[in-house]
Amino acid sequence: MSTSHQHPHTKTTRDPECVLCQALDRARAQGLRMTRALEDVLRLLIDSDVPLTLADIAESRHLSSQADRATVYRLLTKLEKLAIIRRLGLHDRAAYYTMIFPGEHNDYLVCTECGKIARLDIECPVEELETRIEKKSRYTQIYHELMFFGVCPKCGRA
Amino acid sequence: MSTSHQHPHTKTTRDPECVLCQALDRARAQGLRMTRALEDVLRLLIDSDVPLTLADIAESRHLSSQADRATVYRLLTKLEKLAIIRRLGLHDRAAYYTMIFPGEHNDYLVCTECGKIARLDIECPVEELETRIEKKSRYTQIYHELMFFGVCPKCGRA
DNA sequence: ATACATGCAAACATTTTGCTTTGGC
DNA sequence: GCCAAAGCAAAATGTTTGCATGTAT
After folding, report:
1. Mutate which of A97, A146, A155, A157 to disrupt the B interface (most B C-beta within 10 Å)?
2. Does one domain contain both A100 and A27?
3. What is the pLDDT confidence band of residue A15, given thresholds at 50, 70 and 90?
4. Does A121 contact B at CB distance below 8 Å?
């Protein structure tokens, strides 16, 4: 829904170019090489407002490089390990990936019939819980995923 | 095949026998036949305090019937459609299933390293949001899934 | 007697890996 | 030049379906 447009002087961490550069910097710092495929994958994830699957990315016609699935797969795996992107467990068979925007958290609404995914513009009440669970459970690097499922209006009519 | 026994003196909706009977009744009412495999699948899901995969269920040695994977798969699919069980999107490749206990809702804590799943004993602050989203989005039959991920103590030491 | 349920095997879809070649540094 | 990344193809993993047979109703 909300589409952020890049205004040259905005300093927000969501400015696409800014996010891209930071991600590339972090990737390079971790030893990744700066390739066309890497940049393309990151750009796609940054520009999409819903999570994308491996297939979405590898087959994207917006991609200049047309990278192989295996390549995209390995990139996604590395980026996930570096905590630059996140892998989500949505409900269909495929894994979904999404950019991590520092300081932001997104929740989704998924149609159980057609699988359509929408980003929710809500403030998530779970953040506070997270700290509590971190202490109590002794788990580290905790994050959460909150997903809503339901039948979308279009599917509901059928 | 055993018929559903009523236990007139149990009151909690979580009493295993009670839940089983109710589930069987609903299944029968929807046209399912009362088979050994059906009862076994339900019993396993009711008795487990974490979600189970198709493989978990089909290979369970606690199962009297040793039902085939395809059979279990079809049962799970039907039970999900009848809203007797729920399919969860956890993080590894397999789908997880869990019993729906009327009026209850569970959240989970998953280790991103070893995949261990623990049920969280917290009160979920999201219920209220659900209603709000239902109205706003015009989606129907909304439910949610809240999952926490992190590195468990054991994996953290490695 | 009639359908639905089952078991087995095969088809699918997606992820993951091996190996050779290409290309960033 | 060296080692990581890419590309291709094959293996692995988990899900889904087809079909002949068994069984609850």
Report:
1. A146
2. yes
3. confident
4. no
Closest Cβ opposite residue B151 in set A120, A141, A153 = A141
C-alpha B111/C-alpha A138 separation (Å) is 11
How many domains are there within chain A? 2
> Model's pTM, two decimal places?
0.88
Q: Do B150 and A140 touch (CB under 8 A)?
A: yes
B61 pLDDT band, cuts 50/70/90, is confident
Same domain membership, residue B120 and residue B95: no
Measured in angstroms, what separates residue A91's CA from nucleotide D6's C1'? 31
Is B146 domain-assigned? Answer: yes
Min distance A8 CA to chain B CA atoms (Å):
33
The C-alpha of A126 sits at a distance from chain B's nearest C-alpha, in angstroms, of 7
DSSP B93: S
User: Would you give the end-to-end CA distance of chain B in angstroms?
Assistant: 50
Nearest to A105 by CA among A78, A79, A86: A86
Tell whether A112 is within 8 A of chain B (Cβ).
yes
pLDDT band at A68; cut points 50, 70, 90: very high
In-domain check, residue B5:
no
User: In terms of domains, do A68 and A83 share one?
Assistant: yes
A6 part of a folded domain: no
Q: How far is B24 from B75, CA to CA, in rounded Å?
A: 12
The stretch B37-41 carries a mean pLDDT of 96
Nearest to B125 among A118, A125, A137 (CB): A125
Between CA A116 and CA B13 the distance in angstroms is 34
Give the CATH number, domain containing residue B31.
Answer: 1.10.10.10
Using a CB-CB distance cutoff of 8 angstroms, which residues of chain A are in contact with residue B126?
125-126, 146
d(Cα B85, Cα B81) in Å, to the nearest integer? 8
pLDDT band at B11 (very low <50, low <70, confident <90, very high): low
Please give the residue range of the domain that contains residue A154. Answer: 105-158
Q: Mind listing the pLDDT tens digit for each residue in A96-119?
A: 999 999 888 899 999 998 899 999
